[in-house]
Design a protein that fits this description.
Structural class: alpha/beta
Number of strands: 9
Strand order of the largest sheet: 5-4-3-2-1-9
Order of helices and strands: HEHEHHEHHEHEEHEHEHEHH
Distance between the termini: 26 Å
Helix content: 40-55%
Number of helices: 12
Strand content: 5-15%
Shape: globular
Radius of gyration: 17 Å
Length: 263
């Protein structure tokens, strides 16, 4: 059982929905992002998504693209991202960390070496948005053998024919993209999302978490109410970009987490 599996089992026993927070590793700099990540569990975050900066983040909207650019310009690398996870693990051995990013940096490092290093650094799962199920032998299956969950995205365009393939080797949870388009775009509607989540849950026992477009505690609660939890990324990254202090950002995160937990 991974930390992700254990966390969902714990939440289920408590009758609670999950709140997942995404932050870009190294934005605006290493020390500040580490400070933020360390503060997330205390703000009610159940699972941390740690963004791996990449030069061509095709699934991300302007807010997260700019965060990745700032991180890269500040010298953030895959090694430094793993260092950040290691540093976090010195004080917290229970909060799951999912690394979210793109395949190129992992490919350049070498899959075997990356998986050994990621496991050692305390990474629990991967979301690699540009690797489709047809490429599962590349990273997904080796990751699962190494003890890491491989989390897949399902979208409004994932039809009944495609869904079984998407779910085939997925573990940990399913990340349902509530809107068509990039991160941080339109606001999702629970009435649109609920039937899609029900369709996915009919095909898998995995938890389904909703992300994209969630910016307020109210939307966080609405989305969590029709699924197993909610993910917020762009709104948190945007608060950092506005120059808010770490405490201010964590206060904002707590409101989002309280929203999901009240569903």
């Amino acid at each position: 059982m991974t930390r992700i599996d254990a966390k969902f089992a714990e939440l289920k026993a408590e009758g609670k929905k999950a709140f997942v927070a995404y932050v870009m590793a190294g934005d605006p700099d290493y020390d500040r992002s580490l400070e933020l990540v360390k503060g997330l569990p205390g703000a009610g975050v159940d699972i941390i998504e740690l963004g791996l900066p990449f030069t061509d983040p095709m699934a991300d909207g302007p807010t997260i693209q700019l965060a990745g650019q700032r991180a890269l310009e500040g010298g953030m690398t895959l090694d430094r991202t793993l260092d950040l996870a290691r540093e976090f693990r010195k004080d917290d051995d229970t909060t799951p960390i999912v690394m979210m990013g793109y395949y190129n940096p992992i490919y350049n490092r070498g899959v075997h070496r990356f998986l050994v290093d990621a496991k050692e650094a305390g990474i629990d799962g991967l979301i690699i948005v540009d690797l489709p199920p047809e490429e599962d032998d590349e990273l997904c299956i080796p990751a699962q053998k190494a003890g890491l969950n491989f989390i897949r995205l399902a979208t409004p365009t994932t039809d009944d024919k495609r869904l079984p393939k998407v779910l085939e080797n997925t573990s940990g949870f399913v990340y349902y993209v509530s809107i068509t388009g990039i991160t941080g775009a339109a606001v999702p509607q629970a009435s649109d999302v609920a039937p899609e989540v029900a369709r996915i849950k009919a095909a898998t026992d995995l938890p389904v978490i909703i992300g994209f477009g969630i910016r307020t505690p109210e939307i966080s609660r609405e989305m969590a109410s029709v699924a197993d939890g909610a993910v917020v990324g762009s709104a948190i990254v945007g608060a950092m970009a506005e120059g808010k202090s770490t405490d201010e950002v964590l206060s904002f995160v707590k409101g989002l987490a309280d929203g999901a937990h009240s569903a």
